[in-house]
Amino acid sequence: MLASEKTAKGHQLAWRHGTLTAADPLSAWQGLLRARGLTEQDSFFSPRLADLPDPFAMQDMERAATRMVAAIQAKQFIHVFGDFDADGVNGTAVLVEALRAAGATVSFSIPHRAEDGHGVGLEALRRVVAESNCRIGLSVDTGTSCFAACDEAKRLGFDLIITDHHLPEATLPSAYALLNPARLDCGFADRQLCGTGVAFFLLMAIWKKLTEQGKRPSYDLRTLLDRVAVATVADVMELVGVNRVLVAHGLQRLNSAPSVGMAALMKVARCTKRVTAETIGFHLAPRINAAGRMQHGEAAMQLLSCIDPDEADLLAEELDFTNKERRKVEAEVFKQAEEKLGDGAVLAVFDERWHAGVVGLAAGRLARKHGKPAAVGFITPDGAIRLSLRGMKGFHIGHLLQRCRDHLEGFGGHAGAGGGTVKNGQWDAFFNTFADAVTEQSTNASDHTIQQIDGVLEAAALHIGLADRLTRFEPFGRGNLPPLWLLKGMHIADRRDLKGGVVRLKLTDGHYWIDGIVFGGGAISTAIEPGLTVSLIGQLQKDDYRGGNAIQFVVDDVLPE
């Protein structure tokens, strides 16, 4: 642990591993490898699709894949029950596209966020069976908590295969097959896959069975990896192990041969530089999510499954406009939620005025601001309180929901997010149980104010060669954070405030000069005034805006001298 003084953001600094001080680029790189427990030759730096686990190691995969192959060969009608967020829509898109390529007749449905909520709806299930005489279907990114739908499917003679990743209850639903790595008896891929990831492994198993029978489709499943990557990053999965492989190869495809819909989305989002996980999180995923938040997730599904470039451009423009509207509504709901909470210590609130599509985003902003889980709800057309929950490092939303289960129905979630509907007349009971559950987790949660850094860099170590090498750690995200450095004794020679809260800095230690940049100054704005000498916490990056060998230090926090 470093000195007890706090950074400008109120963080306490801690070393990831020992104490590393680097005066040159090579020693910085070598020290970083040691700190992260890696070597130059480590497979971490060369994620290969060939290293993905056998899909049949997932619980129920044999049963699910066998039934799917039989349905394809018998030309049986197959229905996909999707979900309206980026994970659910991408998962629906990859299943529909691949199964149709294998010769199957496939339809799909995506619920409306406010009117239907998450899950496989009973009416949707009955309608599919009645209208098409369909006898087999798949869910994606949903279904683990859909007990009633699974029971009804069984009664109707409908083989419902669940592909999901949300935390299951102790008792599992009576699905034909339940593909969920979060099952206590599974643990596939360290329980880190998103719903689309689970669906992708099902397709791998189907392709493997068809290949063994000499009927392998000509369709290359690697074509789907751009959407698998977007879903994984959008759902904030840990980018380690299997997810690192999937996202790394998905990013390669996004940068070289994206699907028609993704290419149109990248164009409207002005992704002119190299696409990274950060690009997905800040530019692509929000536009996909906007459809389900503000209108209907089918709009995003249309784009992700589109094969006509001109049509895709129009669909992408519509999503871009919808996302702009989403931002305005989200800002207003967050403001109103803050006012309604007042000085309340428990971050649980609802209002009949609030839009269903942005309460989760408002909950996320509240959680980040106050450092603990938040639950924000809206009122459904039938008068029920439907909640979205978001959390912080050290908390587990899925476990919070389980703790509140007596007061909820139709709920589900994983570590970072979740949701559910409060039972009639039980808001106060939910509120109190939620407060107790957050307090209980707080006592066991790691201190979210601790900021871990990889080492100290002297100004002489800030070099394009080091910045280039650091990109080998990509894709960055949850579970694989970018290297974070402490840059000591830097004099702020100049400051320029740009649009959007961006601040440009000129920094020097008296011998070397470096460009600094701050995104959304906020709490550190007054600590980066010209003339001050400070220690900066941040990332060394290539400056793609200026190009060439230009580098910059992206300032995340400040430690006053």
CATH architecture descriptor name of the largest domain: Alpha-Beta Complex
The overall number of domains is 3
- Extract low-pLDDT stretches: none
Strand order within the widest beta sheet: 15-16-17-19-18
Anisotropy-based shape: globular
CATH fold call of the largest domain: inorganic pyrophosphatase (n-terminal core)
Integer-rounded radius of gyration: 24 Å
From the N-terminal CA to the C-terminal CA, the straight-line distance is: 17 Å
Number of strands: 19
Tally of helical segments? 16
The secondary structure category is alpha/beta
Largest sheet: 5 strands, mixed, barrel
Averaging pLDDT over every residue, what do you get?
92
Could you explain the architecture of this structure?
Strand 18 and strand 19 form a beta hairpin. The two termini are 17 Å apart. Helix 3 runs antiparallel to helix 7. By secondary structure, the protein is of the alpha/beta class. It is built from 16 helices and 19 strands. It folds into 3 domains: 132 residues, Nucleic acid-binding proteins (OB fold (Dihydrolipoamide Acetyltransferase, E2P)), CATH 2.40.50.140; 266 residues, inorganic pyrophosphatase (n-terminal core), CATH 3.90.1640.30; 109 residues, Diaminopimelate Epimerase, Chain A, domain 1. The mean pLDDT is 92. The strands form 4 sheets. It has a 5-stranded mixed beta barrel. Strands 4-3-5-6-7 form a 5-stranded parallel beta sheet, sandwiched between helices.
